[in-house]
Amino acid sequence: MLVKWIRLTVVDRRGFERGQRKWAGLLGEPGFRGQGGGWSRSRPGVAHLVAFWESRAFYDSFMARSHDRLAAAQVGTYKDRQVRLFEHEFDVKVGFRPVFGDADVLRLAHCQVRQDRVDHFMLMQEKVWNPAMAGSPGMLRGMLGRAPGEEFLVVSMWQSAAERGKYRPERVERLALRAQIAADVRAIAGDVVQLEPSWTV
Fold first, then answer.
1. In its keyword annotation, does this UniProt entry include Oxidoreductase (predicted)?
2. Most buried residue, 26, 60, 145, 188, by most Cβ within 10 Å?
C-alpha cells in the first residue's frame, strides 16, 4: 500500500474547504483506498491530508489522468505545499484500514533515521512503540510507512483528543529512552491533526 502525505498552509480557508469537497471524485479511481485530513492543532492555518493507494502503479496512473482536474478547484487557496510518498511497512496495532469515520484525531510522526540505525529503529517500532500505542486508550489503528533515504512516517488514528492526551509526555520520554530514539533518529517532526469529517473520501 502506498501512503501520500500532504502538508500545506491555507491562505483562503473558505475556498480551500470548498475545493476539498471536489476530492470526492477519487471514489471512482482504480486502486484508491481512502483519504482524510484536517487542521493542525498547534499550527494555525496548516492542513494535513493522508491518502492511501493499493500500489504505486495505481497512484501514478491517477496522477497522469485525473489529478490536475480535481486539484484545480484549490489553486490559489494555499502555499508551502509539501508532498511525501511512503510504502506501508507494517501496522501499529493490527489490521490497519484506511478508514477515518470513527477517528477524531490523526497523529503524524515524520522521522529521518540514521542510515546505520534503520534496522534498530524498525525493531524498536515493533517491540517498544507498537505495544505501547496499541495499549493506549482511544488509539484505534496506525501504520508505519517508509520512503527512500531512511525516511519514515508513523500515522495513528485516535478516538478523541482527550484520549490522546492520556499518552502523556513523561510516558513518551520513558519509551523514547528505551527505544534509544536519540541514537536512531537525525530529525523528527510531528503534528496532531483535528480530522474534518467533510474531507474524508
1. yes
2. 145
